[in-house]
Amino acid sequence: MVIYDHQDKPDLIQLHMRRSSCFKELDLRDVISRLDIEDGVGHEGAVGFRISKLPKSEFVSFFKDVVNATVAMVKNVK
Q: Which pTM does this prediction carry?
């Protein structure tokens, strides 16, 4: 899920990720560290992080990085 941040921080976008409770082998906090995101928190099953608003083309690229990092993590789950 992607949402614009509150009006007091209009230059930020929030992203939230959740995984199924049945898929406990994946720790979503690893996405935050893998992508060097500084403004992110959560627990193994759900994370949220903020990034500065980006031009559409850069946001699409960033979002693809998030998806690719997550897919790579899923493929490495034993």
A: 0.75
